[in-house]
Each structure stands twice: as C-alpha cells, then as structure tokens.
Amino acid sequence: MEIGGDLEARESGRGPLECDGQLRLVDAHVRGSASLSGVRLTAPHRDAFNGDRLRIGGELYLRRIRCAGTLRLQNAEIGATLDCTDAVFSRPRFRPWPDGPPAAQNPLQVRPSLDARAASVGKDLLLLGVRAPGGIRIRRMDARKSVQIVGARLGGPGARYALNAYGITTAELVVELAETPRGVVRLEQAHVGAFRDSATLWSGRPAIGSILLDGFVYETLNSTGGVDVHTRLRWIGR
Asked: Please, how many CA atoms are within 13 Å of residue 88, restricted to the half-sphere of its CB?
C-alpha cells in the first residue's frame, strides 16, 4: 500500500480501532506520518501487528496501544520519531525452543513483545512507561537522536531477553526502568554517544549473565542520582 499523505487510525473520541486478528502493513509506504495511538490489537501468541519493511516519512505514533500479541517492525524505516509511550503489550508470540526447553522452562519460548530489529529511526525511539512481558528487541537499530527507555517494565516468565539492544547505534541511550528487568539485558556491540542509566538496571539477581556488555562503547556516562565511580565499579564487579 502507498499513501501520499498521513495514515490516521488513532482514537479520536468515537472509540479506538479494534482488530481481532493480524493488522498487516508489510512493505507499506506512508509518505507522511502515521498514528495508531490507542488502538486495540488482538492476536494472542501470534504477530498481532506485522509492519516489516514499513516506511513512514514522518512520525509513527503507537501511544497507549493495547496489543495482545507481538508487534513487529523488523527493517522498518521511520523518518522521524517512533513513539510508544504508555504502550501495553500482553500474550506475546510463542515458538518452540530450537534445542528443547531448558530445565523447568515453558516448552514454548516467549518471543519479544516489540520486535524492531534492524529498524532505522530518524530521530527518537520513545519507550516511556511501556509494559512488555516478552521484552523489547531493537537489535541493530539505528536511531539518529536517542533511544529512551524510561519507566518501563520489561520481561517476564519465559522471556530470554528483557532488552536486546545488540549492536544499536544512537547519539543517546537512556535506560531508567521502573523495576528490575525480568530477563537478560543485552548491550553488546552497541555504540552510543551518551549513556544514562539508574540502579534499577543493575539490581537483578543473579547478576552474572544478566547484563551483557562485551563491545559496548559509549562516549559519556550519566546516572540518575549522581552515582559515584565506586558504586558503578561495584555494579560492574557483580
């Protein structure tokens, strides 16, 4: 599908768009902006939204979206900001473990709630107040201005990664979670300008293997609450 202007599906006072079954925008091209703020998507344990290779010229708004299933944006191109503020995900996609389930694990592996692998974002990725029991995958994403993950609740039973940000590039990465991530946080090979975090990121048990940092490169380091170097060394030492 090609749209010369904007795509509007947001809640506008007459109730939100509701989809029982997959909303599919694979290879669609919207020359303006697109708003799906407040929509209701229901495809439990499947891909509720498939926007692989979706191209948006301006903003993509997914504010307050309620998504029962996984939302896919693999290889999408967003010209400006991708805004997922207050999005709530549930019942993400399942698939069998490739080599069988680990001991005491669900026989089906939980896939990411939001899968934006290899997407490009012209300005900001905003994940503010997001709830994602399957975690967030932004592996190899390029966000020109910032990636802001603030007040989010990521991961849950059966999810391997709470946040998979392997190889991302951005001018600023902010990870200030509302609670301890329930799954692995992967920052390997990420290249960022400024990195801002808080103690919540580092407070998980067990610490070993819960945060992957090999090849993580940053230029400046900031922390909520003015964390000193001795505290940060203790976090790394864990």
From this structure: 6
